[in-house]
Amino acid sequence: MSSSGQATQPVTVLPEVKAGPGCCATSAARPSQSLRRLWRRIDKAWLAIALIPPLLAILDPGQVLPALRFAGESILQTAIFIGAAVLAVAWLKATGAEALLSRAFTGSELHMIAMGALVGGLAPFCSCEVIPFIAALLAVGAPLSAVMAFWLASPLMDPAMFLVTAGTLGTGFAAAKAVAAVGLGLTGGLLVKACAGSRLFADPLKAHTPVGACDSGCAAGDCGNTFLGRPRWAFWREQERLFAFRDTALKNALFLGKWLLLAYLVQALMLEYVPAEVIASLLGGDGLGPIVLAAVVGAPAYLNGYATVPLVDALLEQGMSNGAAMSFVLAGGVSCIPAAIAVWALVKRRVFAAYLGIALVGSIIAGLAWNAIA
After folding, report:
1. How many CB atoms lie within 10 A of CB 136?
2. Residue 79 has pLDDT above 80, yes or no
3. What does the DSSP assignment read for 318-373?
4. Which of 68, 90, 158, 223 fits 124 for a cystine, CB–CB 3.0-4.6 Å?
5. Sequence-ordered alpha helix ranges (H) in 102-215
């Protein structure tokens, strides 16, 4: 009690809180982690498309409208091929025709190699669909030779790629690339069969093979939405298949549109700022050197098969030889990040190295052949 007779409220003394050495670091790390998460979520292709015009406006204002006009006109010129590719892949997805492809891996080993190369070179598999498909084949005992044939041919050509390539580089180049894709698959498969008893290809699978969801952009629609069983050609009678057709077409249209728009913008910049004589001196001519250099450069520089088509068109205009162009698209296609990850995820390093080596040598041979023909 106080002297005034009123009750005195008890005073609670809070313990002193001392800042630990990690307190400020944790607070500071949160924005950094948020930025990293945001950066991972941002589509880098759309970001590049958004940044190119303002950067041009700062560095060379007079080139903004010509670059945008060039990209827009190029998209319109190839629109019919883009549309055909989008509808073809959506139809295959909705009908469930993809399920028929697994039947190719039956019979003798030579038959499986041949069918693996044909299916890989002509079927609309995206890189992430390859992982569970190949893991299942290897798990049930499919020979590595047939799998290698499929792996080598798969990232190089599909119906959408053929149409986009034909629309920009011509039907001849597209057909030659398709033949080269199948040929590369056959060569790789036969080499693996011939060396099957060697230590290089013994016990090829990693201990744990991931068969999870896709991380990369798919050019063939939703990877997890594959219809099994007998194909339904009248897919529009089933709501689920109709939705699959719509979703696959939309995703492919956005996918192709995004990469081609970026590629045409980059093509406009290359034509304006990269001296043609530099390209001609490095990658022109009929000798072996430009073709080997194109294969070596194409392996790390290649990001996306659809985006590369307009870039190769620009390089050809600036003096790149036909053989170097073929070597570039083949070596780069096999070693591009999505395709390489699909192989790396499943097999041991020595098998992965053999995969890259076969692709590099085969690309150079195909480049020499196309240079002689074209």
Report:
1. 14
2. yes
3. TT--HHHHHHHHHHHHHHSHHHHHHHHTTB-HHHHHHHHHHHHHHHHHHHHHHHHH
4. 158
5. 109-122, 127-139, 144-153, 159-169, 171-194
